[in-house]
Structure formats: C-alpha cells, structure tokens
C-alpha cells in the first residue's frame, strides 16, 4: 500500500514538473551574462567540526547561471552569510552541537531541474530544508516534499503556493497581494486614473497583473492598455512603449528583473512620459538606480523599500557587512530575508529539540522567530501564519525629488 502511494506520488511529480516547463520565464531573475556550465554546485564544503559536533544539511536549488544568476546568488549569499556566522560556534540541540552545511545546485530557473536537483539531494544527502527561490520550482516540489520529509523554504511572493495546504513549507517573502492597495492609493492620489500594464510575461507577471487590476478599478482607476514583455527576448522597448504611451496613461505598471525593468522606465522617460511607475516587487529600486545612474529617472515610482533605507542598527550592519563580504554595490531583500529566515529555522530546531522531526520543527517556528537575536533581525518578523507564510512588517517606498520616502503598509 505504501509502495503504491509513493509510486503514484512520484508519477504525479513528473507530470507536474514537465507541465510547468511551458510556463516558466527564466527572465525572472536579474540580468547577468554569467554562465557557469551545465551544473553548478557552489556550496558543498564541510564546515570544520570539533569532536562530537554534527552536521545539519541545508539545500538550495535556484538559478546560478543564465539570466537569473544574480537573483539566485543574492538569495544564496544571504544563506551562506548566515551559515558562516552560525558555524563560528555552532548551535546546540538536545545536548549536541551542530553546524550547517549548504548544498547548492543550479536549476537555471527551470522547475524540472529543481525536481532533479532536489531528488539528488534527497538520495545523496539528508537536508532538513531546501531553499527554492521561484514559484515554478516550489509548485513542482510540493508534490513530493511531505513524503520525502523535508521543509520547502519558498522564496517567492506567489500566493498560489499556499493553495496546496502543504504542511512542510515556509513562505518567506510577503505575498505580492499586500502591495496592491497602497501602490494603487498613491498612484491615484498623485498621478491619475489611467494605467497601462507592461509586466514581465512570466506566470508571476500574469498573476501580479490579475491581482492589481480589480483593486485599481475598484478604487476608481481604468486600464487603458495591456501587454506583456518577454525579457528573455526583448531588448528594445521603443515599439512597446510607444504603443502604450499612445493611450495617454497616467501610470505605467512595470516589473520583472531589475535591469530590464530599469531600461523600460528609461525608454518611457526618453519618450516624454511624466507620470508614475508602479513597480512589481521583484524589481528593486536600489538596483535599478544603479543601472540608471541614480534615482532621478525613478521619480514618481513606488515599489518595495530598499533594505539600506530601513536605517536600523541591524539593517545598517547587515548592509555594510554584506557589501564588504561579497563586493556588491547593494544588499537587497533577497539576501536579507533569506539570511534572517535561516536564523529563524535554526532557532525553530533549537526550540523543537530536534533536527530530524520536520513536523515538530514546523510547530516550533513561531517560538524560534521570537528567539532570533535583535542584531540578526533585519526586518521585524511577527511570526508565521496558519498556511506557512512568514509575517513581516515591510513598508513600500516612493521616489520623490530623487529621494526615498517610506510609505507604510497596513
């Protein structure tokens, strides 16, 4: 009976992952020219162990080559930074000191590769949790993770991941639906009612658009133009933007990876657009400012607040340490939230008194979150809700006169 059930689940797993390939947009990650070969395993080094110390394995399957490489590296860097800090002394559970080993595999943003990577980890290793930073990979691995007994650490703002009722999944970032009302209110109050939709053509972009349209219309706005941009293929946005501006919009809804989103905004400005930009949560204001030479072209934009503008002791220390450690211009929310969530997972294992019982660890997450030290709490984290979504206090930001201004999100 058990064999029959596992065989059925395995069959369903392969059907789903191959079905998901068709709707995956590898352009969701930040643009980069880095190519690292067919297989990249960047973090499989054993930490130095003292006598009687043991290992807890943490998996990562995400883009480390191709168009999504920088996005994936931002996530992985946050994990590695936290793991290196934790491993300086280790952590104790039930009288045993443990250290973390991160096993990182490249999936090129493809759900079928995520499935292959995770199956490899399960057969060769014993990860307590696997970080997956894209919705396609999360939806694919949800089919079997409970049977395979590992926790999915889902770094995607896609609300659909919670529909399965998966009891071994933690959703890390805020769901993008939280941004719809504050983004809409600001744009209607400051720019006008006419909005053109120009999101990335990924499933994430389609779902984000479907989420924002009813809110925009219910609050008095209208959609005057709608298209999608394939950032994996499109590099010249003149025709797309000309068609959109011919409809005289007050607001442009844009988003996807930071670099091409910045170029879309630049094209709009060069064509004389003076309205507002509603920016999806994947594109980061700070990263786009780097591509645009500052915040001037982003005046009139609303998006997710940059980590460096939180201006707390813990966030300032994180940003400076991260930039020095990885020689990066910015520390983004991808790095910060995954850094903090690894600390929360370790504290949950300590609170549960086990590194093996995944159900007990999940039940202890709220207690673990409360035990994360103040200097590691980059953003306020209130807990985890009934469906497994972490509950952050996270504000939006607008750019006015080339300056960041915080917009509270209720």
Automatic annotation (TrEMBL):
The keyword Signal applies. Keywords: Signal. It comes from the Bacteria. Residues 56-367 form the Leucine-binding protein domain. The keyword Signal applies. Belongs to the leucine-binding protein family. PANTHER family: LEUCINE-SPECIFIC-BINDING PROTEIN (PTHR30483), PERIPLASMIC BINDING PROTEIN OF ABC TRANSPORTER FOR NATURAL AMINO ACIDS (PTHR30483:SF6). This is Ethanolamine utilization protein EutJ. It comes from Oceanobacillus zhaokaii.
């Amino acid at each position: 009976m058990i064999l029959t059930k596992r065989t059925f689940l395995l069959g369903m797993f392969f059907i789903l992952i191959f079905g998901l390939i068709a709707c995956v947009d590898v352009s969701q990650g930040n643009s980069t020219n880095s190519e690292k070969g067919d297989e990249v395993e960047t973090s499989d080094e054993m930490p130095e162990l003292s006598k009687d110390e043991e290992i807890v394995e943490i998996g990562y399957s995400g883009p480390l080559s191709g168009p999504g490489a920088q996005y994936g590296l931002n996530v992985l860097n946050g994990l590695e930074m936290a793991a290196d800090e934790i491993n300086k002394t280790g952590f104790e559970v039930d009288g045993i000191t443990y250290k973390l080993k991160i096993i990182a595999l490249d999936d090129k943003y493809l759900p079928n590769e995520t499935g292959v990577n995770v199956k490899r980890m399960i057969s060769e290793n014993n990860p307590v949790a696997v970080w997956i930073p894209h919705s396609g990979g999360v939806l694919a691995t949800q089919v079997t993770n409970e049977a395979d007994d590992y926790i999915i650490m889902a770094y995607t703002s896609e609300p659909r991941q919670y529909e399965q009722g998966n009891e071994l999944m933690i959703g890390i970032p805020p769901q993008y639906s939280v941004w719809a009302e504050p983004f809409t209110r600001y744009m209607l109050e400051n720019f006008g009612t006419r909005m053109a939709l120009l999101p990335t053509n990924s499933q994430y972009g389609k779902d984000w658009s479907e989420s924002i349209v009813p809110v925009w219309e219910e609050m008095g706005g209208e959609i005057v133009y709608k298209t999608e941009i394939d950032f994996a293929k499109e590099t010249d946005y003149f025709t797309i933007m000309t068609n959109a501006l011919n409809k005289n919009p007050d607001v442009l809804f844009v988003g996807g990876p930071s670099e091409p989103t910045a170029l879309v905004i630049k094209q709009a400005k060069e064509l004389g657009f003076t309205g507002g930009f509603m920016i999806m949560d994947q594109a980061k204001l700070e990263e786009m400012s780097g591509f645009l030479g500052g915040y001037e072209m982003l005046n009139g934009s609303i998006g997710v607040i940059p980590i460096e503008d939180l201006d707390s002791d813990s966030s300032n220390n994180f940003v400076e340490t991260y930039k020095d450690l990885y020689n990066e211009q910015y520390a983004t929310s991808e790095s910060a939230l995954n850094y903090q969530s690894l600390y929360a997972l370790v504290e949950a294992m300590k609170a549960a008194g086990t590194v093996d019982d995944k159900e007990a660890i999940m039940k202890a997450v709220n207690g673990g979150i409360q035990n994360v030290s103040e200097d590691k709490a980059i953003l306020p984290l209130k807990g985890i809700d009934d469906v497994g979504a972490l509950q952050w206090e996270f504000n939006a930001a607008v750019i006015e006169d080339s300056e960041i201004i915080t917009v509270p999100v209720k």
